[in-house]
Amino acid sequence: MLPNLKKLVWRWRFVLTIAPAVAIAVIAGGMAGLFLQLEWATLDQFFRLRPAEPAEERILIVKIEESDITKVGEWPIPDTVLAELIKKLKAKQPAAIGLDIYRDMPVQPGHEELVGVMQSAPNLIGVKKVAGEKVAPPPSLSKINQVAVADLVLDADGKVRRSVMSASEGSGKITLGLGARLSLMYLETKGVTLKMMDAKRKLLGLGRAVFVPLTGNEWGYRNADVGGYQILLNYRGTEERFDTVSMSEVLSNRVSPQRVRGRIVLIGSTAESINDLFHTPYSGSLMAPHQLMAGAVIHANTISQILSAALDGRPLIRVWPLLGEWLWVLCWSFIGSWIACAFPESKFLRKKATSRWTVWAAVLAAGTLTGAGYLAFLGGWWIPVVSPLLALVASAIVVTNSYNQWQLQQANEQLQEYSRTLEVKVSERTGELEAAKVQAEVANQAKSEFLANMSHELRTPLNGILGYAQILQRSSTLAKSDVDGIGIIYQCGSHLLTLINDILDLSKIEAGKLELHGSEFYFPSFLTGVVEICRIRAGEKGISFAQQFDSQLPLGIQADEKRLRQVLINLLGNAIKFTDRGGVMFKVEVIGHGAWGMGHGQEGKTEEFAMPNAQCPMTQIRFEVEDTGVGMTPEQLSKIFLPFEQVGDKKKQAEGTGLGLAIAKKLVEMMGSELKVESAFGKGSRFWLDLEVPVATGWTPAAAAVQRGKIAGIKEKKPKVLIVDDSWENRSVLVKMLEPIGFSCFEATSGVEGLDKAAEIQPDAIVTDLAMPEMDGFEMIGALRQSPQFKNAVIIVSSASVFETDKQNSLRAGGDEFLPKPVQLDVLLAHLQKYLRLEWIYEKLEAPLEAARPAVPTPKAPTAIVAPPAEELEKLFNLALRGNIQGIEKAVGELERLDAKFVPFATDIRQLAEGFQVKKIRELINSFRCDNP
Predict the structure, then answer these.
(1) What is the b/e burial string over 150-177, where b = at least 16 CB atoms within 10 angstroms of the residue's CB?
(2) Cα dist from 703 to 95, 520, 854, whole Å
(3) CA angle at residue 286 from 285 to 289, to 5 degrees?
(4) CA dihedral in degrees (481, 485, 490, 491; nearest 10)?
(5) How confident is the model at residue 262 (pLDDT cuts 50, 70, 90)?
(6) Which of 34, 445, 619, 907 is the most exposed place for a label (fewest CB within 10 A)?
(7) Is the torsion defined by CA of 573, 578, 584, 585 positive or negative?
(8) Half-sphere CA count of 165, side-chain side, radius 13 A
(9) Please, what's the largest Cα pairwise distance for the chain?
């Protein structure tokens, strides 16, 4: 038995040693208060997540609002008003009245009247403050012992989570808290009295409730000031959970006696100017607006907690002792260690993706821990969540690293042994080396399969998203705002697709095989796409985002569109991420031309560079991103381009991997430029690159084709297209893309069905997936090519597997083109046009469009156009200063609706905006500002 025990201990040695060590470290951090703020934040979130409880029917809050103070005309409110308020409430026979207003001095007129009312109201309780800056109670109420403590206890983060049941003054006299005093008065009418159950532990019995005071030894309030008799406050909710009326309603007799009779009435200020407002667990929610809670509402929550516990059995919030916390942390530390140790040792999981299963198991354990904490909270217990969660994760990480280090050490020892006996064991080890090589190849294959599967699984839903976005963009029944929204969906989906492609490129970066693929594209549309993606991010953070584009920018350039977009989105994304105040400016300008033109370079110097090809003139463009964010120190600037290095705010570092700037710098260097940066700590940063690119002319025919209108049909043909795909979503996208244009679409769900359907319908073109049941795409293409009937058939392969090997294999099998998913409609139509020799029918436009840059009309003289009012001009001018094209278009639309005489002015501004002529917009507006002071 002893040998078995030794083996068991050796097997679980990492768990038995690391779990207690991690638990001790976490417990030590907890005793030092490192996690208390996070535990409080978790408790606050539990309060906000808890289902809303029924409204409290036994309490009425009389609010003194800003309107009441304004109506009275002064603060403190005069004694005569307060006396009238108490008198009217008293006449409606409440169970008790709590005056949550400090009243230690007379406020004339009417003080004698107020004293008389107070002395004649045996159920009226005034307040005093005994902690910090003390405030005396109303003298008339103090003489008859109708006074309670109104102090609220703030935690270290400034929030109220505890309630003072009673407090002692310097003289040793114990005074009940306002909530406790009013609750006991109410409960006495119900025959419920307070009983001492354990004098040593200060346990108090009240009806169905047992009150346990905080002692300062609890894990959540270790070494905290728990003077008096304090308990955790189990909030019922915000002000909406209570019946409330205003002081004016009471004074004007608009409150029925039924709303007061038999209730506890609390009188207190809710006006912001009085500043009797406090942070509570309901303050600072990410999903709700920031709100403070009035002191009277907090006292109402205390009363509701006491009454509900004594009469209804509603749970009070209890806290575990220190030993309970320690055992809880130790338990979850063992769980994390066990997960990290058991999964690699599992024979079942050894052949699978162990790391992925380990992560999922840890996530499941963390969710179980959080759920247990929430369920315990609903049952009246506040148990640690953050510290055991940290122990769970830390122990799993440490055990994993220790296990890997042990394996590495074992491997090193074996290698040393091999080196000593190499000559003897070389023949014996040859087989082992071959096995190790096979394992390495299997591991590499597993990595490739994982990346391929991940790409395939993400591209499949994106095919539907981007496909239907393209379909809806072609609709003629949608409003412009809807089309714009669909365009943003398409841009964001395309950005996500770019990110997926970037993940696949990481392996190329590691192998040094990353290449640039230049193409000609429409430059303004490219910039608009980048701006729209980043403007959404900036809007979510609540910062401004402005762009400033040079009017001399070419319409078309030749570059790697994907990589240039990747660099710009990375720079703009970083600027937005590290900017909390101010905004981000994106500037693009021409700083140089080819041999036929001059430009201004760095520091205003003119420069000229050679033009390598007379058919392709060159231009030099500066891309600049400037922000007002956190900035960087010189030491941080020296590290920002290193892989896996992150600088700046630690909280924001968690949002990235540290690879973005390193990859961007490498891409910029491959483009023949240099990524430069200037930064001032606390003021902001500026990144820029000067890129020399050929001015493209090849984009013109494509643009002209687009400008001819949407493709509406096919001249003199109705080609038959067979779509072979096992996913009905993918087939649906292609059918809805092609049928409205004039194609006859047929569907097949597998390779076998595709062969049968092809023989039946004789399609003009076949669009097929690769991965399908029964017979995959490769087998189907091979069978088609072997058949004389389909030897020369047009076959387009459309697959979510986008590795180069997939493309080459599909073309080698007999495919004519490879079309990666998500499918781009224009690319698909271009392939079909090429192979089927189609001629498109376009929708007619209202006016002919030119292939070159749309001519910007010369602004009319100010005297020929009616200018809008000065305030509207200033609004437009400010939008132009920020480069906000969308804002300008919206503003001129409002001008047109305001008065028809402003239509010519609005038309000129809109035409300039469509050409991104921000500078000319400012000049035009300035000309009217001079004439319209």
Answers:
(1) bbbbebeeebbbbbbbbbeeeeeeebbb
(2) 81, 11, 12
(3) 65
(4) 100
(5) very high
(6) 445
(7) negative
(8) 19
(9) 114
**The pLDDT of residue 707:** 43
Q: What 3-state DSSP class applies to 173? A: coil
Residue tagged 């009012």 (tokens): 869
Count of alpha carbons within 13 angstroms of residue 623, beta-carbon side? 21
The whole-number pLDDT of residue 886 equals: 76
Q: What are phi and psi of 657, to 5 degrees?
A: -105, -15
Pairing of strands 174-176, 162-168: antiparallel
Query: How confident is the model at residue 820, as a pLDDT?
Result: 86
Omega before 139 within 30 of 0, i.e. cis: no
User: Hey, what are 207's tokens?
Assistant: 């009806």
Whether omega before 822 lies within 30 degrees of 0, making that bond cis, reads yes
- The one-letter amino acid at 773: P
Angle at 151 between CA 148 and CA 154, to 5 degrees: 155
For residue 314, the model assigns a pLDDT of 94
Residue 499 pLDDT grade (very low, low, confident, very high; cuts 50, 70, 90): low
Give the DSSP letter of residue 620: E
Per the structure block, which two tokens stand in for 546?
């402005």
CA-to-CA distance for 622 and 625, rounded, in angstroms? 10
What residue type is 785 in one-letter code? R
Tell me if 876 sits within 8 A of 890, measured CB to CB: no
* Spatial contact of 682 and 631, defined as CB atoms under 8 Å apart: yes
Q: Identify which of 341, 405, 397 has the alpha carbon closest to the alpha carbon of residue 8.
A: 341
How far is 75 from 89, CA to CA, in rounded Å?
21
Please tell me the distance from the alpha carbon of residue 93 to that of residue 260, in angstroms, as a whole number. 7
Q: What pLDDT score does 647 carry?
A: 55
| Letter string b/e over residues 670-702, b meaning 16 or more CB atoms within 10 A of that residue's CB | ebebebebebeeeebbbbbbbbbbbbbbebbeb
In the numeric block, which tokens belong to residue 776? Answer: 């995959």
- Residue 554: helix, strand or coil by DSSP? coil
Tokens of 437: 């090589």
Angle, alpha carbons 490-492-497 (nearest 5°): 90
